[in-house]
C-alpha cells in the first residue's frame, strides 16, 4: 500500500515528469520546477467554463474525422459520467482531453511533443515587434471566474496594446509585482475549484503582475465608502444630469472614449481635445485623470482617420497601403486590449465586484495599464503626421527616419512597421534586378521609365533615377547600381536581342517574399543587402560587356575609328590623298560620290587596310559635306563610319559629329603638309634654274625662308596633335576601357577622350576666334596675290608684306598659346619659337614669356 507521501501532489507531479521525459528524478529537476510554476501560476484557457460546450466540441471533432461510432460512444460515456458525482472537475478533464486530441501539425505555435513542452522556458509574451519579453507573474487574481476572449483571438498574432502591457514590469511606472519565491506558500484555490480563469492570455499576466503589493496585503482593510462600493451602472443609465458621477461610471465612459465614442467626455472640435462635460460633478483629481486617459482616444482617432482616408485612395500605392495595413494591425491589437478591459468590466458587473476590490478597474489602474499602449499610439500618431503627403520610397524614408532613436521600444516598433512598408519597395527592387521588369503603376519606385523613348536611346534616356523616391536606407551608389542592373538586362533583351535567362547571368538569391524577410534584411543592410546588389551588378555588367566585345566587336570598332577617322593608318591616308588629288582639285559641284567610293576601295586594297575585318571595311564610306559657292573637292570631302545597333549606344550622333570635326581638321592639316612639300620641291628646282638671274636671288631666298617657316609650323602642329593629343588621350581611353566595370564607364571614358582632343586641337567653342583669318582678311590676301602676279617688279615688296602678315598671325597664335591654361599648348609655343625668332619681333611674347621665366630656367 502506498504511503501518503507517495500520493502527495509533488511526488505525483515529479513521477509524471519522469514518465513523460523518460529520465531519472535528478535529470528532470529543471522541468519539475517549471511544472510547479505552471500549476501555481494564473494560466488558464481563455474559453468559457462550459462542460457541455467542450463535450460538443469533442464530438464535432470526432465527426469531422469521420469517427461517428466513437462520437456516439463518447456521448454515452459522457452521459454516464455526468450522472455520477465521482469527479468534481469534469470540465477541466474534458478540456484536457480536447487539447490532447488536437493534431500538433495544425498549430505550428504549439509544441509537437510533451518532451518539447518541458524543454521550453516559461511562455513569453507574443510581440509582432519583439524587443522585451516579460514572464507572467504568479500573483493570484482575487476571484475565480473571469470570462475572456476566445482562444483563437487570444492566441492570434499581436503587435501592440495587450502585448505591450506586460512590459510594465520592465519599462513602466507600475508597482512592484509579487514573485513566486521558493518555499513561499502560494495562495491558490483547491483542486475542487478548478483552474483559474484569466482576462486574456496576455492581459491577465499584467493585471496580476501589477497589483500594488500594499493593496494585495491589505485588501481586506479597504474602506467601504459609499462612492467606491457603488455597483457599476449600465451605460444607458449614465444620464445623471448634474448629479455626481461615480468613478465606476467614469471608467466605463473612458473605455468608450478609447474607441472614439463620446460620453461624459466629449471631443472639442475647437480645441481639438477631449473635455469632461461641464455639468458633470467631478473632483479635480478625477477630472484630470479622465482627461489624461482621454488622450488615448484622441490618438486613436488621429490614426483611424488617416487609415480610413488613405485606405480608399488607390493612388496611394502599394507602399502606402502597406503602411495603412501596419497601422490597422496595431489598432487591431489596441482593440484587443479594449475588448479584454470591457470583458473584465462586464464580468465585474455580472459578479457584483465592488470598485474597491483588489482587482477591479479604476482610473489609476487604467493609467498604469494604458501607459505603454499610449506610448505606442503616440509613436504611430507621430508617424502619421510625418508621412502626410508622402508615398512610395519617400514614405519609406519618412518611416525609416524614426528608427534613429535611442528608445529601444520605439525603435523596435518602427522597425516592424518599416519591414511592412518597405516590403513592396524591395519587391519592386528584386523584380527589377533579377527580371528587368518594372511594374510601377503609381510611381513609387526610384527607377522611372519613359515608354516614349525608342530603342536606340534606351540606355541613355529610357530609364532614370527618381531621386525623390530613393529610400533613405538605400545609398545613392546602391541606387545607381540598381538602375544599371535592370537597364543592362533590358538592353540585352531589346537592343542586343540576347534572350539568355537572367538566372544564367545572375545567381538569383532569395528575395523579400514576406515582411519578415524584409525585416531580416534590414538587420544587415551593409552586408547581406549590399552583397546582393553588388553580385547582381558585377555579374550583369560583365555579361553585357562580354556580349558587346565578343558578339558586336565594340573594341574593334573603337580601334577602327582611331585608324581611319583620326588618321592613325598612315600608309592608307597618304595613298588615299595621292589618288584623290586629281578629283578633289575640281569644283565641289562636279564630284560624284560613287567615283570617290571607288577610289576609297582602291586605297584599301593597296595598303595594309585590306587586312582589317570585312565588317569594319563595310562600314567605312565617303561623305560629302554641304557645298558652298567656290568650294573645291578638298573643302567638302570627308570619310564616314556607319554605326548601328548596340555599338551606336557608345558612338552616338554627337560623338560621330565630334569625329567628323576632328577628321576635317586633321585632313586639312595633312593637305597643307602635302602642298608645302610640293612647294619645297619646286623651290629646289627653281634655285638651280634661276641661278643665272641674280635679280631673282633675293626673292627666291625670301620665298625659301617663308616656306621653311611654314613647313616647320605645320610639322610641329602635326607632331603635337599626333603624339601629345591623340596618342596620349587614346592610351588613357584604352586603359579606362580595359578597367571598365559597366557600359556607363566605357561611355564616360569615350566622351572624355573626345572632349580632350576637341579642346586640345582648338576646335571647342572657347578656342574659336582666337586664331585664323576672317573673310575680309582673305579678300585682302587675294588682292595682294593678284597684284603680285600682275607686277614682277613689285614682287619683293609684296613678298615682304606677305611675310609680315604671316608672322603677325603666327605671333598672335603664339600669344594665345602662351596664355593658355593647358600646359601642353604652352609647351607647343616653345617648339614653334625654339630660337626665339618671334619673341624678338613681338613685344607681347617677351612680356608673356619673360614674366613666367620659361626661357630663363634653361639659359
TrEMBL record:
Residues 208-230 have a biased composition (Polar residues). Residues 143-195, 208-244 are annotated as: Disordered. GO terms for cellular component: centriole; centrosome; cytoplasm; gamma-tubulin complex; polar microtubule. Signal peptide: none annotated. The keyword Protease does not apply. One of its GO terms (molecular function) is microtubule minus-end binding. Residues 147-168 have a biased composition (Low complexity). It is found in: Cytoplasm, Cytoskeleton, Microtubule organizing center, Centrosome. GO terms for biological process: cytoplasmic microtubule organization; meiotic cell cycle; microtubule nucleation; mitotic cell cycle; spindle assembly. Keywords: Cytoplasm, Cytoskeleton, Microtubule. InterPro entries: GCP, GCP_C, GCP_C_sf, GCP_N. Residues 554-838 form the Gamma tubulin complex component C-terminal domain. Belongs to the TUBGCP family. This is Tubulin gamma complex component 3.
Amino acid at each position: 500500500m502506498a504511503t501518503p507521501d507517495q500520493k502527495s501532489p509533488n511526488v505525483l507531479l515529479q513521477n509524471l515528469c519522469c514518465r513523460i521525459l523518460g529520465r531519472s528524478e535528478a535529470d528532470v529537476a529543471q522541468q519539475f520546477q517549471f511544472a510547479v510554476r505552471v500549476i501555481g501560476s494564473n494560466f488558464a484557457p481563455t474559453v468559457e467554463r462550459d462542460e457541455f460546450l467542450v463535450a460538443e466540441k469533442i464530438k464535432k471533432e470526432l465527426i469531422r474525422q469521420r469517427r461517428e461510432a466513437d462520437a456516439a460512444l463518447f456521448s454515452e460515456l459522457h452521459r454516464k459520467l455526468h450522472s455520477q458525482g465521482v469527479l468534481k472537475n469534469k470540465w477541466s478533464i474534458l478540456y484536457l482531453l480536447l487539447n490532447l486530441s488536437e493534431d500538433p501539425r495544425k498549430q505550428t505555435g504549439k509544441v509537437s511533443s510533451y518532451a518539447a513542452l518541458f524543454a521550453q522556458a516559461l511562455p513569453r509574451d507574443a510581440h509582432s515587434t519583439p524587443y522585451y519579453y516579460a514572464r507572467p507573474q504568479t500573483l493570484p487574481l482575487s476571484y475565480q471566474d473571469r470570462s475572456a476572449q476566445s482562444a483563437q483571438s487570444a492566441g492570434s498574432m499581436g503587435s501592440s496594446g495587450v502585448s505591450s502591457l506586460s512590459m510594465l514590469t520592465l519599462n513602466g511606472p507600475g508597482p512592484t509585482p509579487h514573485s513566486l519565491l521558493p518555499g513561499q506558500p502560494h495562495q491558490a484555490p483547491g483542486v475542487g475549484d478548478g483552474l483559474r480563469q484569466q482576462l486574456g492570455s496576455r492581459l491577465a499576466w499584467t493585471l496580476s503582475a501589477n497589483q500594488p503589493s500594499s493593496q494585495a496585503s491589505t485588501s481586506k482593510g479597504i474602506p467601504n465608502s459609499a462612492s467606491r462600493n457603488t455597483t457599476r451602472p449600465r451605460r444607458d443609465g449614465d444620464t445623471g444630469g448634474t448629479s455626481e458621477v461615480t468613478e465606476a461610471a467614469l471608467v466605463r465612459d473612458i473605455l468608450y472614449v478609447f474607441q472614439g465614442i463620446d460620453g461624459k467626455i466629449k471631443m472639442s472640435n475647437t480645441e481639438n481635445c477631449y473635455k469632461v462635460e461641464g455639468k458633470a460633478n467631478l473632483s479635480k483629481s478625477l477630472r484630470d485623470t479622465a482627461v489624461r486617459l482621454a488622450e488615448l482616444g484622441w490618438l486613436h482617432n488621429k490614426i483611424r482617420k488617416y487609415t480610413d482616408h488613405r485606405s480608399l485612395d488607390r493612388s496611394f500605392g502599394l507602399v502606402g497601403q502597406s503602411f495603412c495595413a501596419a497601422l490597422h494591425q496595431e489598432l487591431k491589437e489596441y482593440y484587443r486590449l479594449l475588448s479584454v478591459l470591457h470583458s473584465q468590466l462586464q464580468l465585474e458587473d455580472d459578479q457584483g465586484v465592488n470598485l474597491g476590490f483588489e482587482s477591479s478597474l479604476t482610473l489609476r489602474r487604467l493609467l498604469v495599464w494604458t501607459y505603454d499602449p499610449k506610448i505606442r499610439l503616440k509613436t504611430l500618431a507621430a508617424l502619421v503626421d510625418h508621412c502626410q503627403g508622402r508615398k512610395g520610397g519617400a514614405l519609406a524614408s519618412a518611416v525609416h527616419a524614426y528608427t534613429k532613436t535611442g528608445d529601444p521600444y520605439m525603435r523596435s516598433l518602427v522597425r516592424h512597421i518599416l519591414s511592412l512598408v518597405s516590403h513592396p519597395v524591395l519587391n519592386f527592387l528584386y523584380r527589377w534586378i533579377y527580371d528587368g521588369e518594372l511594374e510601377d503603376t503609381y510611381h513609387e519606385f526610384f527607377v522611372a521609365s519613359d515608354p516614349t523613348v525608342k530603342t536606340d536611346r534606351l540606355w541613355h534616356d529610357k530609364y532614370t533615377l527618381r531621386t525623390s523616391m530613393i529610400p533613405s536606407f538605400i545609398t545613392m551608389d546602391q541606387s545607381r547600381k540598381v538602375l544599371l542592373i535592370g537597364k543592362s538586362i533590358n538592353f540585352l533583351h531589346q537592343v542586343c536581342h540576347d534572350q539568355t535567362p537572367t538566372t544564367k547571368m545572375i545567381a538569383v538569391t532569395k528575395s523579400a517574399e514576406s515582411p519578415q524577410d524584409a525585416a531580416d534584411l534590414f538587420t544587415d543592410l551593409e552586408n547581406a543587402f549590399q552583397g546582393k546588389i553588388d553580385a547582381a551588378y558585377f555579374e550583369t555588367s560583365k555579361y553585357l560587356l562580354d556580349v558587346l566585345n565578343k558578339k558586336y566587336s565594340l573594341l574593334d570598332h573603337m580601334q577602327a575609328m582611331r585608324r581611319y577617322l583620326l588618321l592613325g593608318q598612315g600608309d592608307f591616308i597618304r595613298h588615299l590623298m595621292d589618288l584623290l588629288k586629281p578629283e578633289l582639285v575640281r569644283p565641289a559641284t562636279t564630284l560624284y560620290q560613287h567615283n570617290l567610293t571607288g577610289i576609297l576601295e582602291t586605297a584599301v586594297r593597296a595598303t595594309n587596310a585590306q587586312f582589317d575585318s570585312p565588317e569594319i571595311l563595310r562600314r567605312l564610306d565617303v561623305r560629302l559635306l554641304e557645298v558652298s559657292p567656290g568650294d573645291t573637292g578638298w573643302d567638302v570631302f570627308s570619310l564616314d563610319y556607319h554605326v548601328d545597333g548596340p555599338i551606336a549606344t557608345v558612338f552616338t550622333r554627337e560623338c560621330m559629329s565630334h569625329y567628323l570635326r576632328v577628321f576635317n581638321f586633321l585632313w586639312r592639316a595633312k593637305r597643307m603638309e602635302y602642298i608645302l612639300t610640293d612647294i619645297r620641291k619646286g623651290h629646289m628646282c627653281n634655285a638651280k634654274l634661276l641661278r643665272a638671274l641674280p635679280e631673282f636671288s633675293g626673292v627666291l631666298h625670301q620665298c625659301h625662308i617663308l616656306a621653311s617657316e611654314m613647313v616647320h609650323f605645320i610639322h610641329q602642329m602635326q607632331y603635337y596633335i599626333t603624339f601629345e593629343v591623340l596618342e596620349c588621350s587614346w592610351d588613357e581611353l584604352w586603359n579606362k576601357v580595359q578597367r571598365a566595370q559597366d557600359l556607363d564607364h566605357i561611355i564616360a571614358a569615350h566622351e572624355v577622350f573626345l572632349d580632350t582632343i576637341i579642346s586640345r586641337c582648338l576646335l571647342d567653342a572657347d578656342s574659336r576666334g582666337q586664331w585664323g583669318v576672317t573673310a575680309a582678311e582673305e579678300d585682302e590676301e587675294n588682292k595682294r596675290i593678284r597684284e603680285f602676279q600682275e607686277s614682277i617688279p613689285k614682287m619683293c615688296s609684296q613678298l615682304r608684306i606677305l611675310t609680315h602678315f604671316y608672322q603677325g598671325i603666327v605671333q598672335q597664335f603664339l600669344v594665345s598659346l602662351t596664355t593658355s591654361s593647358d600646359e601642353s599648348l604652352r609647351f607647343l609655343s616653345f617648339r614653334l619659337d625654339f630660337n626665339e625668332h618671334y619673341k624678338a619681333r613681338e613685344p607681347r611674347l617677351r612680356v608673356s614669356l619673360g614674366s613666367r621665366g620659361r626661357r630663363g630656367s634653361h639659359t
